[in-house]
Amino acid sequence: QVQLQESGPGLVKPSQTLSLTCTVSGGSITTKYYYWSWIRQPPGKGLEWMGAIAYDGSTYYSPSLKSHTSISRNTSKNQFSLQLSSVTPEDTAVYYCMLVAGSYWWGQGTQVTVSS
Questions:
Q1: What is the phi/psi pair of residue 68, to 5°?
Q2: Whole-number Å distance between alpha carbons of 56 and 74
Q3: Rounded-to-integer distance, Cα 23 and Cα 20, Å
Q4: Which end of the chain is more exposed for a tag (fewer CB within 10 A), N or C?
Q5: For the stretch 50-73, what's the b/e string if a residue is b when 16 or more beta carbons lie within 10 angstroms of its beta carbon?
């Protein structure tokens, strides 16, 4: 059973870079055809797909966020990470990591607040 766990600071100041890591257990991030995504949900709004990194390291980004989003991975630690630069209070959200592989596996989510 694949499990995902987000980690990172809960508070980020405006204009700084938000960095989150997703640690995966019960499966390898290099398993073929597995796609590892970041998704967020701002307060009172719907889910927003931010981007993904594939089993082969290819990355995909939402066009609206591409200019300040980066997703990377550390295969030795079986982790993948999100960096969102130049954050504003509008980036306040619950951030989730997710596996897409025929079905969906979600992390529990982590609250990130952007505030000075």
A1: -135, 30
A2: 12
A3: 10
A4: N
A5: bbbbbbeeeeebeeebeeebbbeb
Beta strands, E only, 11-109: 11-12, 18-25, 35-41, 48-54, 59-61, 69-74, 79-84, 93-100, 104-106
Q: What is the pLDDT of residues 55-105, one digit of tens each?
A: 999 999 999 999 999 999 999 999 999 999 999 999 999 999 999 998 999
Place of tokens 């066009």: 63
CB atoms within 10 A of CB 45: 9
